[in-house]
């Protein structure tokens, strides 16, 4: 018999429970990826552009093992069902998802008469595996972390050695280029794919992790793993990264960040409207201010640390976590512009942009999410002085401030050396 493995956010061969389960069933396995135009249109162009390379590499890995990657374009459920009909398969294995899109896909597959078996693989601890007494999900991080830490992890799975494919199926073409989606493209995006992800993880374990606890908030150092896009696309398994890091120096702090990722995923599984609705409505009042929103998006607010973050996003499709907090707080707390406008802009540009992590974090910063102190104050200038004390991060991304030495880069309004093109602050940056 034949079985389909439908790849979604799990574009890898290592630690792939759905693929391993399908292979264990003894059937010939048809690995499938469907390019869904409706999904591509909604995704960040930056990430869509990386897909052909990632899929080609995945196909190469499957071919080396005697299999192939069957690629189709259209609605994922309909294409999988058509392939099932063509080959006589009746089961689809896939990796669990937490979004509405994932839930609808599963529903559609079942509606088309297929048996759907979903497997862990998205997070370290699967979303439903730790739940509080009397509730379906944890709303606050600290108790979640305690339960998460006490929960055993499944074993990391090796990449399969052989994949046998049913004969006669047209593998379909992977387009040489995909230029669809939202947002402008970054000039300097990360190289993606399973091999690049594994190299990045190795290098990180070897020389980055040990300094993580001390340096993860250091804006100019950028001394974080840069594994977020690999995790987002599933080129790397979060469980494998966590398992390798856990017992190393610096590992605890890093694994805690992966627990944050799991946390937002289990919240989103329970509240799939995360991208569109307040998780905890607190009656916030938002302002419409198209000019301020535009200045924020372009990195021209006149607040150097905010502009540096926003320009890093545009040029790299990535932003340092500390800068994400500063820029998001500036938009929602200082300018009082709705979190959705900011989160959508992030989602259009981030290589790692993800419903659970992006919108969950935006709501956290905006005070509509799971922060237990939704009214905490956030002063951009103080943040800048603390996390970029010499102004190095700001000068790297804001060329107009290149001539301002040291921390003077944070307060161009006090100086005459700033390029005349740099705008005055559109709102008070604090003092
Ligand atoms: P590291 O510091 O090396 O952390 C390791 C991994 O832990 C990350 O790759 C990520 O998977 C996870 N992680 C770390 N912090 C968080 C967090 N706060 N929430 C969830 N997971 C976390 N992360 C995304 O992956 N996608 C997003 O769309 C996203 N949007 C964000 C929006 C805002 C407003 C904020 C404040 C944070 C957002 N984050 C998002 C979380 C975090 O900023 C990024 O994961 C991190 O900057 C990625 O860099 P890194 O891989 O070097 O992180």
**Largest sheet composition:** 5 strands, parallel
Give the termini distance in whole angstroms: 69 Å
Q: Residue ranges: pLDDT <50 for 5 or more in a row?
A: none
Summarize the helix and strand pattern as letters.
EHEHHEHEHEHHHHHHHHHHHHH
Level-2 CATH architecture of the largest domain = Orthogonal Bundle
**What is the number of strand segments?**
5
Order of strands, widest sheet: 3-2-1-4-5
Bound molecules: flavin-adenine dinucleotide
CATH superfamily of the largest domain: DNA Cyclobutane Dipyrimidine Photolyase, subunit A, domain 3
Give the number of helices: 18
Q: Helices and strands: which structural class? A: alpha/beta
Structure in words:
- By secondary structure, this protein is of the alpha/beta class.
- It folds into 3 domains: 2-121, Rossmann fold (3-Layer(aba) Sandwich); 123-154 and 195-270, Serine Threonine Protein Phosphatase 5, Tetratricopeptide repeat; 290-414, DNA Cyclobutane Dipyrimidine Photolyase, subunit A, domain 3, CATH 1.10.579.10.
- 45% of the residues lie in helices and 6% in strands.
- The chain has helices spanning 17-24, 37-42, 45-64, 76-87, 100-111, 141-150, 194-207, 212-215, 228-233, 238-245, 251-270, 290-298, 304-316, 321-334, 339-349, 355-366, 380-387, 392-397; strands at residues 2-6, 28-35, 70-73, 91-95, 115-119.
- It has a 5-stranded parallel beta sheet, sandwiched between helices.
- Helix 1 (17-24) links the parallel strand 1 and strand 2.
- Helix 4 packs parallel to helix 5 and helix 13 (304-316) packs across helix 14.
- The mean pLDDT is 96.
- The site of flavin-adenine dinucleotide has 28 residues, from helix 9, helix 11, helix 14 and helix 16.
């Amino acid at each position: 018999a034949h079985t389909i493995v439908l790849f979604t956010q799990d574009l890898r061969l290592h630690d792939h429970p759905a693929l391993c389960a399908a292979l264990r069933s003894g059937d010939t396995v048809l690995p499938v990826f469907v390019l869904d135009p409706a999904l591509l249109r909604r995704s960040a162009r930056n990430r869509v552009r990386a897909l052909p390379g990632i899929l080609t590499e995945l196909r190469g890995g499957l071919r080396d093992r005697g299999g192939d990657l069957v690629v189709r374009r259209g609605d994922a459920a309909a294409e999988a069902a058509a392939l099932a009909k063509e080959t006589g398969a009746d089961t689809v294995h896939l990796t669990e998802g937490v979004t509405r899109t994932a839930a609808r896909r599963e529903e559609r597959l079942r509606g088309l008469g297929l048996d759907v078996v979903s497997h862990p693989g998205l997070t370290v601890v699967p979303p439903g595996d730790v739940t509080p007494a009397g509730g379906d999900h944890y709303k606050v991080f600290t108790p979640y972390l305690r339960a998460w830490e006490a929960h055993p992890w499944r074993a990391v799975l090796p990449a399969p050695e052989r994949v046998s494919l049913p004969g006669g199926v047209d593998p379909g073409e992977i387009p040489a280029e995909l230029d669809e989606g939202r947002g402008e493209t970054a000039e300097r995006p990360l190289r993606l794919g399973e091999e690049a992800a594994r190299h990045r993880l190795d290098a990180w374990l070897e020389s980055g992790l040990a300094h993580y606890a001390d340096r993860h908030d250091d804006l100019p150092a950028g001394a974080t793993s840069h594994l977020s896009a690999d995790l987002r696309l599933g080129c790397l398994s979060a469980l494998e990264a966590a398992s390798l890091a856990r017992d190393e120096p610096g590992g605890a702090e890093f694994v805690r960040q992966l627990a944050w990722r799991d946390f937002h995923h289990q919240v989103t599984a329970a509240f799939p409207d995360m991208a569109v609705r307040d998780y905890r409505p607190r009656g916030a009042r938002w302002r419409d201010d198209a000019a301020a929103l535009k200045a924020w998006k372009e990195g021209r607010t006149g607040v150097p640390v905010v502009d540096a973050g926003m320009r890093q996003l545009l040029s790299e499709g990535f932003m340092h976590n500390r800068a994400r907090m500063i820029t998001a707080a500036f938009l929602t707390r200082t300018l009082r512009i709705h979190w959705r406008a900011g989160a959508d802009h992030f989602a259009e540009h981030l290589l790692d942009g993800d419903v659970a992590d992006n919108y969950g974090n935006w709501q956290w910063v905006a005070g509509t999410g799971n922060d237990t102190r939704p009214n905490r104050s956030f002063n951009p200038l103080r943040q800048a002085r603390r996390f970029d004390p010499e102004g190095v991060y700001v000068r790297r991304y804001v060329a107009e401030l290149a001539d301002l030495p040291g921390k003077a880069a944070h307060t161009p309004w006090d100086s005459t050396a700033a390029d005349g093109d740099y705008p005055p602050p559109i709102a008070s940056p604090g003092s």
